[in-house]
């Protein structure tokens, strides 16, 4: 049983490129990106519930989810672009540019959803429903590409200095 709260460290660690836009080494883009992902992912279920129940609450909820998704998505995009332009190595990865282009497409879909719903939150059929369906698909694509950057390439992650923690130090902590 472990006797310390220190994280165990794998013997082989993939190389990482720490985020340049971080607060105390915690990258801000991954912290903020959960809000647009959540809001825009819930857009399609809210539209479906409105069409199924006819309850106007769900149309209003979809409107606010769309507005929240667009606003927080713009903030996440600014933070992500700052990392992209401040990390020279990142710009060499095709995945970074794919994530960037897909993210712009997702923000365009979110903006279209706000525009479609602005005159009447209940005007869901058929265009807003199509928009929320494509939005969910784009959330999955953008999330997949972002995960590839983080977990596959180690770009924009929690910064650590080589040698600050080693497998030997973790093994000693476990033995104590």
TrEMBL record:
Membrane-crossing residue ranges in chain numbering: 32-52, 64-87, 99-118, 124-145
Pfam families: DUF2231 (PF09990)
Entries under InterPro entries matching the protein: DUF2231_TM (IPR019251)
Tagged with keyword Cell inner membrane: no
Domain (DUF2231) ranges: 25-157
Taxonomic placement: Bacteria, Pseudomonadati, Pseudomonadota, Gammaproteobacteria, Lysobacterales
Keyword set, alphabetical order: Membrane, Transmembrane, Transmembrane helix
Protein name, entry field: DUF2231 domain-containing protein
The organism's place on the tree of life at top rank: Bacteria
């Amino acid at each position: 049983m472990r006797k310390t709260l220190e994280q165990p460290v794998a013997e082989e660690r993939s190389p990482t490129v720490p985020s340049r836009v971080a607060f105390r080494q915690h990258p801000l883009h991954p912290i903020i990106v959960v809000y647009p992902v959540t809001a825009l992912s819930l857009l399609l279920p809210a539209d479906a519930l409105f069409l199924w129940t006819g309850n106007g609450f769900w149309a209003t909820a979809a409107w606010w989810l769309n507005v929240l998704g667009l606003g927080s998505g713009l903030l996440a995009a600014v933070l992500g672009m700052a990392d992209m332009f401040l990390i020279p190595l990142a710009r060499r990865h095709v995945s970074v540019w794919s994530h960037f282009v897909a993210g712009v497409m997702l923000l365009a879909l979110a903006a279209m959803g706000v525009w479609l719903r602005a005159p009447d939150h209940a005007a869901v059929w058929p265009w807003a429903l199509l928009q929320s369906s494509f939005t969910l698909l784009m959330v999955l694509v953008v999330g997949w590409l972002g995960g590839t950057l983080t977990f596959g390439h180690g770009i924009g992650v929690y910064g650590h200095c080589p040698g600050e923690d080693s497998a030997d130090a973790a093994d000693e902590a476990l033995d104590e």
